[in-house]
């Protein structure tokens, strides 16, 4: 091999290179694709964070207010650098980068090849990147779940000393409590914990670790419930709020047609979901490697591949068949971010499996067929990911030549980065930056009284654009419920239209600009940025 290719192979086979490459790509995506504000859960978590530093935080009977590990760190960022789109989503970004660091430092020496694959599978996965740009709990839970599993991974064999057992036990419980304070779905890891516990109990290993974990967990949970009893008046307030909100979101329509939708949800729909979300890439590698590994594939818990395979399968089983409620059966939604807690485990399994059988030529054929099937099933834009991978592996299978490890890794990185790159260059959806610029320029008068007519989404979340400190001389109202008799106190009236929000399907708003402007025929356009328009409404023309 020429020296140039040898140096290139060495560089592209280095875990440090892929760590830096994936971190760099993540940061580019964060700053270049950031939508700013999503008019969803990010508003609620940001509001709780602001209340913590400004005073006035209280439980509001909504499940989000109990997820302290989402908004407490965010409150620290608000305190340091103020409220803005980037400080709001900085904590999820840190957790994604932290996940990469944990994978790197855990596997770089013992399994460097697996570390490379795992970082590529994880770091270029679109929906993981997508959730670094807004304040949802899923990337945070992803990181904490991985940390919990890493503690168990290190303790899968007898620890060196009793001191280590005790420290690992305390660390394990604290990490799980932090995950529980992030999102309740950490409970899907409990069956795997039980498997490890019974396995080591049978072998008489790490008894101090488990005793410490049970005692520390009992103590911390007792304190947790006692604090709720003192400050909320109900030790189980969180669970009641979850049940109430879950029942409301579910609606009676689900119970009316539950029998007709459960069969598909519990059988073939998850497979379609894997193909449509892109999760089929790491899962495909893991499945192909398992098929070829056959009897040589070890699934013993003290084996690296066995540990992460059983962890993935046990959590997958819970998410596949588990219920989001204890009072009625309702499986988890098939949304990519709902599978985030097991994403690192998926990627690690795929990396460890490929590490063992990469040189087998039959692997290329199986991968080509799997990705071709995924392209057919997923359809739409997903062909841009699956077809390049299909042709890549098929060509090398037909050529009867082994694929250099670094070349295969690079091909997967390029293919899976296509979708994130597309969204980087794709025009903004919500036009947050444009709307923020217009508000900062025209809707911050220090004196006088002003009314701003806007849409239903903006009406309940406009204070984010003011850092949750809306000037008291501003009154936002919905233009569809406008009443001219109630604005006599206003010095000026404005009409704010964000067509990006109105046209976004997730907002569920049917009204369009063409429906609004006829209501205000004398509207005078003051400023326009992108799809955001600000109009001045002369008071004497309003009726």
UniProtKB/TrEMBL annotation:
Keywords: Membrane, Transmembrane, Transmembrane helix
Keyword Transcription regulation: no
Residues spanning the membrane: 15-32, 64-83, 89-107, 114-129, 135-153, 165-180, 186-202, 209-228, 271-293, 305-326, 338-354, 366-399, 405-425
Keyword Transmembrane among UniProt keywords: yes
Designated name of the protein: Glycosyltransferase RgtA/B/C/D-like domain-containing protein
Lineage of the organism: Bacteria, Pseudomonadati, Bacteroidota, Cytophagia, Cytophagales
């Amino acid at each position: 091999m020429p020296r140039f290719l040898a140096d290139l192979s060495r560089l592209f086979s280095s875990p440090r290179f892929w760590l830096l490459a994936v971190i760099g790509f993540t940061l580019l995506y964060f700053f270049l694709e950031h939508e700013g504000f999503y008019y969803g859960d990010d508003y609620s978590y940001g509001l709780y964070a602001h209340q913590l530093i400004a005073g006035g935080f209280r439980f509001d009977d909504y499940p989000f207010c109990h997820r302290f590990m989402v908004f407490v760190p965010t409150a620290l960022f608000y305190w340091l650098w103020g409220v803005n789109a980037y400080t709001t989503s900085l904590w999820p970004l840190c957790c994604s980068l932290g996940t990469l660091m944990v994978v790197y430092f855990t596997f770089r020496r013992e399994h460097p090849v697996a570390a490379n694959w795992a970082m590529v599978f994880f770091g270029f996965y679109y929906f993981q990147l997508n959730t670094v740009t807004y304040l949802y709990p899923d990337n945070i839970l992803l990181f904490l779940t991985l940390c919990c599993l890493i503690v168990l991974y290190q303790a899968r064999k007898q620890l060196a000393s009793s001191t280590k057992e005790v420290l690992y036990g305390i660390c394990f419980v604290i990490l799980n409590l932090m995950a529980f304070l992030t999102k309740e779905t950490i409970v899907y890891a409990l069956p795997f914990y039980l498997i490890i516990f019974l396995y080591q109990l049978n072998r008489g290993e790490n008894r101090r670790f488990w005793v410490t974990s049970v005692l520390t967990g009992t103590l911390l949970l007792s304190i947790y419930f006692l604090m709720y009893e003192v400050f909320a008046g109900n030790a189980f307030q969180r669970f009641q709020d979850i049940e109430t909100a879950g029942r409301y979101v579910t609606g009676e329509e689900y119970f009316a047609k539950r029998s007709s939708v459960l069969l598909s949800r519990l059988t073939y729909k998850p497979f379609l979901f894997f193909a449509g979300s892109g999760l089929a890439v790491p899962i495909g590698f893991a499945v192909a490697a398992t098929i070829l590994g056959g009897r040589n594939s070890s699934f013993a818990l003290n084996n690296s591949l066995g540990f992460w395979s059983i962890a993935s399968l046990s959590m997958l089983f819970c998410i596949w068949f588990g219920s989001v409620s204890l009072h009625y059966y309702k499986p988890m939604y098939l949304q990519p971010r709902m599978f985030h807690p097991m994403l690192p485990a998926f990627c690690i399994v795929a990396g460890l499996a490929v590490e063992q059988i990469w040189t087998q030529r039959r692997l290329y054929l199986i991968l080509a067929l799997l990705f071709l099937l995924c392209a057919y099933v997923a359809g739409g834009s997903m062909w841009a990911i699956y077809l390049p991978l299909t042709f890549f592996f098929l060509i090398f299978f037909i050529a009867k030549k082994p694929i250099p490890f670094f070349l295969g890794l690079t091909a997967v990185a390029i293919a899976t980065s296509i979708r994130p790159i597309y969204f980087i260059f794709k025009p903004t959806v919500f036009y947050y930056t444009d709307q923020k610029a217009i508000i900062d320029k025209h809707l911050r008068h220090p004196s006088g009284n002003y009314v701003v007519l806007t849409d239903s989404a903006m009406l309940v979340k406009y204070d984010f654009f003011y850092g949750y400190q809306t000037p008291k001389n501003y009154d936002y109202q919905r233009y569809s419920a406008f009443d001219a008799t109630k604005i006599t106190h206003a010095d000026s009236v404005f009409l704010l239209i964000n067509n990006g929000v109105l046209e976004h399907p997730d907002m569920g708003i049917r009204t369009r600009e063409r429906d609004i402007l006829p209501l205000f025929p004398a509207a005078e356009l003051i400023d326009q940025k992108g799809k955001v328009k600000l109009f001045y409404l002369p008071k004497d023309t309003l009726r």
